[in-house]
Amino acid sequence: MRTRADLLGWIGLAGRVYLGFVFLAAGLAKLPEPAMTEQAVRGYQLLPWQLAPAYAIAMPIAEVVLGALLILGLFTRTAAVATALGLCSFIVGITAAWARGLNIECGCFGGGGGASADPTYLADTLRDLGWLAIAVYLILVRRTKLALDDLLFRRGTPPEADYSESSKKTELGSST
Amino acid sequence: MWYVVGLVAVSVAVLALGVWFVRREIRDEVSPAPLLWAGYAVVAAFVVFGVLRTSWVVLS
């Protein structure tokens, strides 16, 4: 039977898988080229200079891990919170560059960022806001369909509900 | 300047929404309250640090 919770769960599955693949693709694109990623991070002129190399390595790894967790539906809400925080930091980075009049490329999917004559700040910000909306939905919806969470951490049904009539009869039968 | 004002306003709104969210989760007994508040503290620290750093960079 289809209920409202089922519908929200299926929408959650679609959002989870989509956002997961976006993060996985972004992470995998940056992972093999940390020097290019470091260059892109430095282009924003936001982080301290010494932190850029560590961030350039940690960020793609975090994106790959979060993408995998979202696709599998494992620790979904925690992964969604981390994803939302990451997206908020990307939005702040892009808008701060925009506000300061920097002309740089996003570098979100590799490529090293760098100078750009025609930066796409508005499009990048709107795109990240859309992804942020999906992450917030995943935080609020609590359960999504086909998630490993449901398999490993089954919640919501108290033990009494699993106490079937047949098991009651068996227990009573054995005691008499 | 206006960017920083907007950033601080949005961040305060996000932190307030976070309090509402944590209280809802505690009310519905989704997770233990100390765990939820600890998670909120980590997120709030990240947000506050991000706002302070960005504001400093933009204004300097």
Automatic annotation (TrEMBL), chain A:
Subcellular location: Membrane
Keyword entries, A-Z: Membrane, Transmembrane, Transmembrane helix
Membrane topology: Multi-pass membrane protein
Domain of life: Bacteria
A Pfam family the protein falls into: MauE
Major localisation: membrane
Domain Methylamine utilisation protein MauE: start-end pairs: 10-140
Entry's transmembrane regions: 7-29, 49-72, 79-99
GO aspect biological process, one term: methylamine metabolic process
GO cellular component: membrane
Name of this protein: DoxX family protein
Native organism: Nocardioides turkmenicus
